[in-house]
Amino acid sequence: MTDNVDQQTRSRMMAGIRGKDTRPEMALRRAMHARGFRYRLHATGLPGRPDLVLPKYGAVVFVHGCFWHRHPACRYTSIPSTRPEFWQTKFEANVVRDNAARGALLIAGWRVATVWECAARKPQQVEVAANLLDAWLRSGAAEIEIGETELVAERAEG
Known about the structure:
Its EC number is 3.1.-.-. It comes from Fertoeibacter niger. GO terms for molecular function: endonuclease activity; hydrolase activity. By secondary structure, the chain is α/β, with parallel strands linked by helices. The chain is built from six helices and five strands. It has helices spanning 7-15, 23-34, 66-69, 84-107, 123-139, 148-157; strands spanning 40-41, 52-54, 59-64, 111-116, 143-146. The longest helix is centred in the middle third of the chain and has 24 residues, at 84-107. The N and C termini lie far apart (48 Å).
């Protein structure tokens, strides 16, 4: 199967995909800052370069795109029809790298939160995700994963 755009256009499109300061990340950062949390950004000295580092809580937060980081059972996780073998290999490497970074951080004593893009697409979702993160940071639990399904469960409880 061939690509429906030329190589230069595809290259320009792919180069425009941001690795940091994405919309979901910026929205979550604003919500956490408004709640009084202070953090460092994209700490290069830590495995996986977490999006937020909260030293006071010994915690890091990753804001993962569902497509690139393969959020299980998410509607935003798909495989492009062009060159599916290439994409599958790329996605598998991303997941392996994410798991290795998460494991290294936990072994080093860090608490790890993963907020999926699907949980931070709309302002009301960001607020619920930030509330869940706030409660997690104060709880002392080692890990939390926040996706769209966790937001639905939280709204049903609250």
